[in-house]
Specification:
Order of helices and strands: HHHH
Largest sheet: none
Strand content: under 5%
Helix content: over 70%
Radius of gyration: 18 Å
Structural class: mainly alpha
Distance between the termini: 43 Å
């Protein structure tokens, strides 16, 4: 069960990183040419890498947190079904980690150009 969760978390993280790199590369292709005239290309490269790392690592952390909290929540719900509202809040807080990473990635890309 832990191996399946680990593979799922890794797949989500890899998908998030690749999606962000694709969006950043395709969306910023035209803007990159204009920004390249004013911003050093090395700085742009590191900004893209940093944004991808922020989004990917936060997705990895959020996936792990949801896996741990979710499995514990299912165990708690089996014993006390009236805890559903509290459990959903805890799982939502764990998912917030990915949103924070995405916000940081957007801020990095916005500052880069």
């Amino acid at each position: 069960m832990k191996i399946v969760q680990g593979v799922a978390v890794a797949a989500i993280a890899i998908g998030g990183v690749s999606l962000l790199v694709l969006l950043a590369h395709s969306g910023a292709a035209g803007a990159q040419e204009a920004a390249a005239q004013t911003v050093d290309p090395v700085i742009l490269k590191w900004a893209f890498i940093g944004a991808a790392a922020a989004a990917g690592l936060s997705a990895l952390g959020a996936g792990y947190a949801v896996a741990v909290v979710g499995s514990a929540a299912v165990g708690a719900l089996a014993e006390k079904p009236e805890l559903l509202g509290r459990v959903l809040i805890l799982v939502g807080l764990a998912e917030g980690i990915a949103i924070y990473g995405l916000i940081v990635a957007i801020l990095i890309l916005n500052q880069a150009g």
